[in-house]
Amino acid sequence: MAQLVKLQDYVSRYQIDLKRYPTQFVRLKKQQWDRTKEEWERGSFNADWIEKEEVVVEYEKKSLFSILFPKHKKEIEEDLDWQNAELAEEVLIPEESTTLLFEPKLVYKPQTKEELKRMYLDQLFHFQLKWASSTLREKSYVDPKYMRDSMLRDFTQKLPDNYFLFYYPILKIKKAPIELDIILILPTEVVCIVVLEDKKSDAFVGSGERFWLKKSGKEEKKILNPTINLNRMESILGQIFQKQEIELPIKKVILSRNGYIDYPGNSFHTEFIDTRKFPEWFLSLKSSHSPMKHMQFKAAQAILDLVQTTSYSRSSWDLDSEESNE
Questions:
Q1: Dihedral of CA 308/313/319/325: which sign?
Q2: Which of 162, 190, 272, 277 lies 20 to 30 A from 59 at CA?
Q3: CA distance 150 to 157
């Protein structure tokens, strides 16, 4: 699972100490899966594993996406193909000790290992959203749309653990907030992604002009040229990296998982990935086995140093509630 380092302008655990949290996440994820699988295989789940009825109802609501769009067995197995990243010695952060825990619960009794994996990954996704929107002292309001965001789920649940994901982060440049699109920081490169998606089978006709044409059935509509945002994002990251002496190539992608992109002109080093190319492109993106690297951490930290954060202080009641839940 790609690590959700920053989501919008929400406060993030990774802002506290980027060197510690990525390795702790990888270790926590693997340890808890091994524990869950072992207990399930032995059939020795006790009452501590079973959630109360009201929690089951809430979980089922949050997991509606998984029910509507179930994964194939092969996809589930790939999702749990743990990466052999180089893990530093785990160093616990005292004030964060209670919130580092992730303890999966049985919200229903899985009949197969695939069902168990699906349930585990869904709960881990919710845990990632928690890490990307709260610390022990601060918390941000999470828009419920992110629970249903299929792009966010695809990137977090299907990409390797050694990828850092910035999902529409808001940076503060010269005191002005600037919202970027999707940034994936891999061990050896950075991928900037602008998404074009609406209705299934929409066609996007590109050009070098300020506007593109979106065709949806018989309807046609002008949309802002996505390369404008993409080039701006590349320029901003390029300036940040140059100032911090970060040497990572920046790739640019315009992505439409369910539509078609027709761009007859020069691409200017931009990849156009539509529904025809997406499976192959995403498979190649998943295939990286390189461990996390120093330059990758440096790039992520340079961006985190400029992010805007909107949050509120958590009350003692809120903290007590979280500790009791965990």
A1: negative
A2: 162
A3: 10
d(CA 319, CA 14) in angstroms, rounded, equals 19
Residues 6+ apart with CB under 8 A from 210: 224, 225, 228
Closest CA to 267 of 251, 286, 249, 290: 251
Place of tokens 């966010």: 152
DSSP assignment, residue 119? H
Alpha-carbon gap, residue 323 to 326, rounded angstroms = 5
Task: State the number of CA atoms in the 13 A half-sphere of 302 facing the CB.
Answer: 21
Q: 190: Cβ–Cβ under 8 A, 6 or more apart, which residues? A: 183, 184, 237, 248, 249, 250, 251, 299
Q: Helix H segments across the chain? A: 21-42, 53-62, 64-68, 73-79, 113-131, 150-158, 226-243, 278-286, 294-304, 316-325
| pLDDT per 10-residue tile (average), the chain, 326 residues | 94 91 88 85 60 39 39 46 38 41 69 85 89 90 94 93 96 93 97 94 92 93 95 96 96 96 84 96 88 95 96 66 46
What are the residues whose beta carbons fall under 8 Å from the beta carbon of 272, sequence distance 6 or more?
A: 206, 253, 254, 261, 263
Name the CA dihedral angle for 219, 224, 225, 228, rounded to a multiple of 10 degrees: -170
> How many whole angstroms separate alpha carbon 83 and alpha carbon 228?
35
DSSP code for 314:
P
Name the token pair of 76: 């589930």
3-state percent helix, strand, coil for the chain, nearest multiple of 5: 40, 20, 40
3 beta partners: 164
Distance between the two ends of the chain, CA-based, in angstroms? 22
